[in-house]
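Could someone model zinc ion with this protein?
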Amino acid sequence: MKSNSKLNRVLIVGGTHGNEFTGAYLIKKFQQFPELIRRESFKTLTLFANPKAFTEVRRYISRDLNHCFSRLDLQDTTLSCYEDLRAKEIDQMFGYNSENPIDFIFDVHSTTTKMGLTLIVDNDDLFSLQLAAYLSYINSEIKVYSFGDLYPSPNLLPLRALAKSSICIEVGAIAQGVLNAEIFLKTEALVFAILDYLEKYNIGEIQSKQNTLILYKYIEAVYFPRNEHGEIQAMIHPQLEFKDYQALYPNDPMLLTLDGQTICYKGDSIVYPTFINEAAYYEKGIAMCLTQKHQITI
Ligand SMILES: [Zn+2]
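Reply:
Sure, complex below.
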């Protein structure tokens, strides 16, 4: 997004993954009490993204909705599973060519990992980086994560790609299909902080010129070892469980195999694991994602 261009429409999304109840119920609450998210200088819209998956308490019905937003897929009329159709509908409501194109999206997710309050940003989105720098400055609990240039893959774009600028909130640890009041309230407070920032931005009142940021950049996923039937043969090592964002040194334990062997980290530099034991990643066989910690200047 160009600096100094005013935001007109902001979209808050929840329930992109149907079993992530924090975001889903936040949207239900905001739809019931719209005055909570109303701000003077822009219009706040809400989207309950995957209602069918929510009803079935599943991440998705046929395909991860958060991978359905490449232009190629949105224009492909042969793609017709529930999520493909839903993505096309959402694009028609809020996409670039819709009557209500969105200037800023934030999509609220939750995680079974102990990632606390995490903001996921894109490296080339200066506006979101500035927002993340500001939020992590006013709340030291907030961590900022980026998939770097490795993700999103051009073929599997997330919902938030519909707007010029966007941020994704990940909160945890919380089980799938469960609400937790403390996490709910923290997430809600973060949503309000973002709306207040956007309001201040619009009226030219961003006081903090916070321009440095600790960014955890994705480098690679660590997969569980499998047997010849494709079955997982290890679990997260007990010493690493719930240690998201903590330094992992060469030769530190990572995984414990079913036959009792410890698998250690074999890299030669310190990394910071995230998404350690994410339930949603078992279907891909991913045990965790490794990141590097950078201090960046925006
Ligand atoms: Zn999610």
